[in-house]
Amino acid sequence: MKLVVETNPLTCPFCHQANYCSNNENRACWCFNTKVPQELIELLPNSVINKSCICSKCVDNFRESPSLFKSTYSPQ
Ligand SMILES: [Zn+2]
Question: Model-level pTM?
Answer without folding.
Answer: 0.72
